[in-house]
Amino acid sequence: MKIALDPYMYRDVPLTQLPGVVADLGFEYIELSPREDFTPFFLHARANDDTVKGFKKALDAAGVKIACHLPLYRWSGPDEIQRQAAVRYWKRAIELTTELGCDIMNSEFNGRPEDAETSEGQFWRSMEELMPVFEREGMRLRLEPHPDDFVEDAKTSIDMIRGINSPLVSYLYCCPHTFHHGAHSAQEMVDIMDYAGDLLTHVHLADVFDHTASSGLRYITNPPGNAVRVHQHLDIGQGELDWDAFFSKLGTMKFAQDDDAILTSCVFAWEDRRDASTHHMRSEIDKHIKRWG
């Protein structure tokens, strides 16, 4: 198992300085999430050959590796022009990932929940175009349902991944999205992990509050009924997830014994205290792994 850091709170750090910062924070692996100077959200990559060369040199110097690359594009969007652009962006992102010496990518289903049927059709159309590229490059893909995607329920997304029917594609469980995934108890969280089984190859770690608690009045928006999706990416221990139940289940699944499994610290809430937050996450990860194996 690889323990990685999503360095989104450090996106202001120049790319060639990022590996040294990550190493100082106690991590050997980076989950490379969207950055304006590499692969921005929803736009074509900004990196060229020199960018990759300089980044690889910095990674080697710091003793840090890229565990996976996370691009985010509108590949399931109802708008066909945007979808076609997203496929082009994906192809370049796959090239960059290969050049970095990495063979794992992860992303979200995307699309629109208010037009789920059209979005699903667009998703499969994009997969038909991109799967031959993933196969040619030997690139593995981990997918997660995200709040406000066309598929938000965890078990539905796992069924869709099974429908892709490729050993290259597996499931990413994002802990801070738990209460949008159809789970409102520790047992229901564990049920999702059981349902995924061997497809569970990747985890995003951050804590969260249950937005549905207090009769749905924990977060109030005006006017009532607004189509919003509320969640947080907090330090472990600051929210309401049952971490003993979660890590205990990972232990029984032997997740830590899988060389290709990735456990990513994925906190976004504390840019004002990002070093303390990241050190806390590393300590909590190590504590739970030691306890649950």
Label this structure with key terms.
8 strands, alpha/beta, 9 helices, single chain, 293 residues
Task: Write a structural description.
The chain has 293 residues and is of the alpha/beta class. 40% of the residues lie in helices and 13% in strands. It has 9 helices and 8 strands. It has helices at residues 18-24, 49-62, 80-99, 116-137, 154-164, 186-196, 213-216, 243-252, 274-292, and strands spanning 2-5, 29-32, 65-69, 104-108, 140-144, 169-174, 200-205, 262-265. The chain has an 8-stranded parallel sheet. Helix 6 links the parallel strand 6 (169-174) and strand 7 (200-205). It is globular, with a radius of gyration of 18 Å. The N and C termini lie close together (11 Å). The relative contact order is 0.13.
Residue ranges: pLDDT <50 for 5 or more in a row? none
User: From the helix content, strand content and strand pairing, which structural class follows?
Assistant: alpha/beta
DSSP strand content: 5-15%
Distance between the termini: 11 Å
Outline the biggest β-sheet.
Answer: 8 strands, parallel
Secondary structure: helix percent: 40-55%
| Total count of strands | 8
How would you spell out the order of helices and strands?
EHEHEHEHEHEHEHHEH
Mean pLDDT: 96
How large is the radius of gyration? 18 Å
Strand arrangement, major sheet: 3-2-1-8-7-6-5-4
Globally, the shape reads globular
Q: How many DSSP helices? A: 9
